[in-house]
Structure formats: C-alpha cells, structure tokens
C-alpha cells in the first residue's frame, strides 16, 4: 500500500476537557471555555473509527496519543476497542505506537496490564511530591490528589509499565525543585518532563514568573548533571533535547523547534485543531469524519499557523543562544515577546559548558 507520508501523530481527546480533577492552572479547560462549545460529550465509535481508518491510510507509522481533560473517563472499553480496530485494519507495512497522558486517579491493575500488553507509554501528571502536587491539583471539593497519584506510580512500576512523570512548573515547584527531584529519584522515577505553567488565555494571572523559571532551570540542571556525574542518569526531556541539538539532531519536542509542526489534535466530536494549545474556534481545521488530511492541511496553511509561528518579536537573530532556544513556543509569547526570554538568557551561559561535556560523552559512546 502506498502512503503519502512515513509518520503521523494523532493527539486524541476521547473525553474532551472533562476531568475528575479541578486543577486551578488547567490550560485545556481554560481553552475549552473560550469555545462556543466547551466540554464536549465522550467520543463515539464512529469518530474513533474515522481516526483509525484515515490515519492508517495516510501513513506507514501512526502514533496515537490519548490526552484530555482526563482520557480514562472514556472508559477502558473504549481503548480496548480502539486497539482491536487498529489490529484488524493495519497491514504488515504499518507500525503503530500508543501514548497516554493521565492524572492517574482511575488507574488500577486492569488498566496497567492493558497498557503493558499493548506497549503504551504512559505520562502521569504529578507535580514532584504529594505536598507540592496538592497545591494546584485538587478535585471540585478542593481535596488533594497527590497520595493517590503516588500510589498509581507505584502500581505502574510494579506492573512494569513504561511511564514518565510530567510536572507543571509553578512558582511553588520552582522554589522547591530539590525536594521534588529528590522525591522522584528516591522513588526510582527516572524519566521526567517539566512544563512551564501557561498563563490563562484572557487573564492577568500568572503562575510562574521569568525570574522563578530561570532559577528553577539552573537548580534543576545542577541536580541533573550531578546525577549524570554519579553514573545515575535521569532523563529530563528539556536537557535531553538540548544535548541532542548540540550533536546536530533536531529536537523531538515541538515546542523547542522554533517553528510549529503539522500536528492534528482530535476533539471528542472529531473536530481537528493544529495544536493542543490552540483548540479554539478561530483555529479549527475541520473534522476527521468529513475532511481529508489534504483539506485539513490546506486550512492550516490558510490560517498561516506554521508560517507565522517563528519568533519575530524578540531580537533572536542577535542572540548567541538562538540555535538552542529558537525563540520559544509561541503559546508563551504575546505582543511583548517570549515570556521566558530572560530565563533562557540566564540559563544557557550557566549550563552550556556542562551540556557540552555531556554531549561529547554521548558522542563518544
């Protein structure tokens, strides 16, 4: 079977923005509230089937990434049927991978064994330690979820599920990163992602200052480099990407590329958006049910979503760190420029020599 492209990633929201938590900094619920139709009903089978059929027809390797909201609210049966349909429809030429981002509250042994059986990479949202986690990640009754998520992480380890931890960086986490890092490492969690907390779309509130983020990056880097020197490396996505970039590889994290990529985010009703951070009415590309990929791509071009994504506000051309920073993800920019420009200008001189040491070591290996 001839396909148009070698690889395709579909970011799928089977439960839309619905969630069993009420985290005060949730960017996606904020995004949904800025749509005419906010939180949508659970994904129906015909939408899931359209995703599978059109994706397999479009690419040889398909990556299906489930996120939310909270995707477990769609029920385990939804995902069991999804992987069954993929297995029925894919050819010998296809390769398929799965990823799943969750708050972990509904996971049990049955879920864990399903993930293990089908090779899911699971991302668990956990802000470093139960105490820090509970500052922002609570339910509608303001009850913290940290201990429950920590128990889920222990379960995933016990069932040998491949997983990483995603922590949202707020001022509080930035001020206590040593505690958070130590907690994770002491609990044998060695794959970390740290995401700078996003400001609401139309609100003056900010959960993370550039000053706090700059200090955070330096302190976290010290911890990461010390672990590497001790022969006990910890994977931190941002630093791993920087090492790869120093070796001439493109960053695998799209927010580090300096220009947006061709993404497809599928809401539960089948509507497609160009980015998880831009699932708003004005950025709608079409529907997986009624539109072809060519039509979705044409709409993205019409919106100039990729073409207008490079940073043309800050003086990146004159910046010595432009090759590594690349102007930052546009979701962190406004009319004054990249919010964390000063953070990066503080971090890179501090870390570059040690990053190069790690890069040279990797190159020798």
From TrEMBL:
Short name of one Pfam family: SPASM
PROSITE patterns: RADICAL_SAM
UniProt keyword annotations, A-Z: Iron, Iron-sulfur, Metal-binding, S-adenosyl-L-methionine
PANTHER family listed in its UniProt record: ANAEROBIC SULFATASE-MATURATING ENZYME HOMOLOG ASLB-RELATED
Tree of life domain: Bacteria
Name this polypeptide is given: SPASM domain-containing protein
Similarity field: Belongs to the radical SAM superfamily. Anaerobic sulfatase-maturating enzyme family.
Requisite cofactors: [4Fe-4S] cluster
Residues of the Radical SAM core domain: 2-226
